[in-house]
Task: inverse folding
């Protein structure tokens, strides 16, 4: 099968630089509005192990779809209104998490994300109008507005799917590097060439690897940051010993060097670790 009819439209959307002015201003506003690191980590889903936004959207989506189903059933005249109210209220945390994730994306992703958000704003307006119509006794009008909201929300969801899967927004972009490593133990360098207490980048084939050493123990991480492929080898090392962390120079994602665990976002996934062993003074790595 060929590409979907929508792909040329989506490709043009990714390249529409006219959106960048609005996008850049909104990015600055979101960054300025959400400053506390703990709040940023909470909304990014750093504590969860993957982005929080897709989890939060399940509540409004479930409420809105359930409303549409109940509207088709006889004898359910007033039942959908509470569901609709729950869905509208539940959009607030989902929107907050989504905007923060969006603010840390590349421009091509932000262009698609901006239209995704715009569609959802329109859908929310239609659902709010639907709820008000139902509460004023105009049930038929409320149903029509609800189905209009579901249609627009479906468009927004389609754009969100493109952002997440076609553009890899929110995925761990370092993980594919693991598959390019050799399956068998392969020497990457000598132990003596890895400075103690500092990071160093070495290539294994064409995969850059971040090495960190304390005494005779070495840890190895994929060097490209899983958030947006930033060069961790150029990042600052904070802390000491096996509590030390590396901070991505692009967006500030922070990972523990001993196990790759994410300490601060915007990354929500751990940085991929590479199995390592030291034999006869040589550092060897292989695929997990």
Result:
């Amino acid at each position: 099968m060929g590409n979907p009819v929508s792909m040329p439209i989506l490709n043009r959307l990714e390249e529409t630089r006219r959106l960048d002015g609005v996008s850049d201003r909104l990015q600055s506003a979101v960054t300025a509005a959400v400053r506390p690191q703990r709040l940023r980590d909470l909304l990014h889903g750093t504590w969860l192990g993957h982005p929080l936004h897709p989890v939060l959207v399940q509540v409004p989506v479930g409420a809105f779809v359930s409303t549409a189903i109940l509207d088709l059933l006889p004898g359910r005249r007033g039942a959908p209104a509470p569901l609709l109210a729950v869905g509208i209220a539940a959009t607030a945390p989902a929107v907050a998490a989504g905007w923060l994730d969006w603010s840390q994306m590349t421009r091509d992703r932000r262009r698609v994300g901006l239209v995704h958000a715009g569609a959802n704003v329109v859908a929310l307006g239609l659902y709010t109008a639907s709820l008000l119509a139902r509460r004023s006794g105009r049930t038929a009008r409320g149903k029509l507005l609800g189905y209009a909201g579901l249609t627009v929300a479906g468009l927004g969801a389609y754009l969100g799917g493109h952002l997440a899967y076609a553009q890899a927004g929110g995925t761990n972009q370092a993980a594919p590097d693991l598959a390019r490593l050799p399956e068998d133990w392969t020497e990457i360098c000598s132990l003596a060439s890895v400075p103690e207490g500092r990071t160093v980048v070495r290539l294994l084939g064409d995969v850059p690897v971040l090495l960190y050493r304390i005494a005779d123990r070495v840890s190895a991480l994929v060097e490209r940051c899983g958030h947006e492929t930033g060069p961790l080898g150029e990042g600052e090392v904070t802390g000491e010993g096996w509590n030390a962390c590396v901070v991505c120079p692009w967006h500030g994602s922070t990972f523990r060097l001993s196990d790759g665990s994410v300490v601060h976002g915007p990354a929500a996934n751990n940085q991929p670790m590479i199995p390592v062993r030291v034999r006869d003074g040589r550092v060897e790595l292989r695929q997990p």
The chain has two domains: 7-166, 175-285. The first strand starts at residue 186 and ends at 190. The first helix runs from residue 7 to 14.
